[in-house]
# Entry
Amino acid sequence: MPARVRRARKGGTVDSMAFVVYAALLAAGLAVGFGLGLLQNRRNAQRAHDLAARLEQVGKERELARQELDAARDALRHRTKDYDAYRGKVTDHFAGTSDRLRELAIQYRAVYQHLAEGASALCPEGFQGLAGGLELLAPQSEAAPEPENENSNESENENENEKKSERAR
# Structure
């Protein structure tokens, strides 16, 4: 056996002193460790509390964002529905306008035909001189007048001026 152990058995003063020192160091180490553990625990508790508060705040923000998103989706659906209804009204309006213009064109042709027939029947000698294209609707037996060009207009104006000057003499 070692010398220390032998001494501890004989008198025990040196070894018991070392034991007390070791025990005191152990107790101090435990106390320091326990104190550091408590400090760390408080820090962790504070950190956990802060994280829980932040998590709750993020949850509220998420719920608010979800509500805003739902409101935006509802508004988009409503506006899309309104836009589709507006497009339908515009389409119906222009379809109705097209129908009315087609009817107007048919009625215009009927009036035009009536005028052409009346001009042909009531003024056969002057029918060819009517302007506005009524000659296109004239019966085939009558010849349509030749289209006038710029030179013929000038010569007609000169002829009319000469006739007026002869009458004046």
The CA atoms of residues 87 and 93 lie 10 Å apart. The chain has one domain: 3-139.
